[in-house]
Write a structure and sequence with these properties.
Blueprint (H helix, E strand, L loop, with lengths): L10 E2 L1 H7 L9 E6 L2 E6 L10 E2 L5 E5 L28 H13 L6 E10 L2 E18 L2 E10 L22 H10 L13 E5 L15 E5 H11 L1
The structure holds zinc ion.
Zinc ion (ZN) binds next to strand 10 and helix 4.
Length: about 240
């Protein structure tokens, strides 16, 4: 898959995701400035996910939980410890780097940090949720410890490294992870029109701009790139 052609709601394997981001592996959830122009976070809303990430009811805002202290550096469970903005050495953690980006934005020093969010749909099945503006964070007390929550909103800028010439990105709502999971299982990981398992995309059958919804699997299906492009051409 060419990196130019990955757009929101495309399906990628773990390997493709790493190739797109030009890294050998993606081990961490939060990756500040993985690219000179943007950061990358991995998110999972699966029931056994280690963090509590959620999409707000407005359909465009994501609340992303910060990361725990490293397991290796401690002999006890990181889930019992406050999430940290600094390492013992005084260096910023990924939480600290994201916080600094929010503070710089609030001071007017910089634009909101652009963050690409990939979500895990199922093991080995990832999807680009979109490119988001990191504009706020909060610290809250949850289950006896302090955690960070980063607040991101779907950006008007969905074009970093992305060719959009034949794609419309006018539908502005996020397809919930749960819907993607349902669709993937229902459509057996194949294009519903030709059975291809390559270059798949979560497609709104009726586009958002024409009143279609992202919130039910009934209006979302898997299409391969060829059929997705044919459809876009017809609509435009
Ligand atoms: Zn197809």
């Amino acid at each position: 898959m060419s990196k130019d052609l990955v757009i929101r709601d495309d399906v990628v394997s773990y390997r493709e995701m790493c190739d797109i981001e030009n890294v050998q592996t993606l081990q961490r959830g939060m990756n500040y400035r993985l690219n000179p122009n943007y950061s990358v976070v991995l998110m999972s809303q699966r029931s056994n996910a280690p963090y509590t990430d959620r999409v707000h009811d407005d359909g465009v805002t994501v609340e992303y939980e910060g990361h725990d202290v490293s397991r290796k550096a401690h002999n006890h469970n990181p889930k019992f410890e406050d999430q940290a903005a600094f390492l013992p050495t005084g260096k910023l953690t990924q939480n600290g780097l994201f916080i600094k980006a929010v503070e710089d934005y609030k001071k007017g020093i910089s634009k909101p940090e652009l963050v690409k969010i990939y979500e895990k749909v199922l093991p080995g099945v990832w999807s680009l949720k979109g490119i988001f503006d990191l504009f706020d964070y909060k610290q809250l007390f949850d289950n006896g410890r302090h955690v960070y929550r980063f607040i991101l909103r779907l950006s008007d800028n969905q074009k970093i490294n992305i060719e959009t010439s034949t794609q419309s990105i006018e539908h502005t709502r996020i397809i919930p992870s749960k819907v993607k999971q349902e669709v993937w299982k229902r459509d057996n990981g194949e294009c519903v029109l030709c059975g291809s398992q390559e270059n798949l995309h979560f497609d709104h059958e009726l586009p958002f701009s024409k009143g279609g919804t992202s919130l039910t699997s009934k209006n979302v299906r898997l299409l391969c790139m060829k059929h997705n492009l044919e459809k876009s051409a017809k609509i435009e």
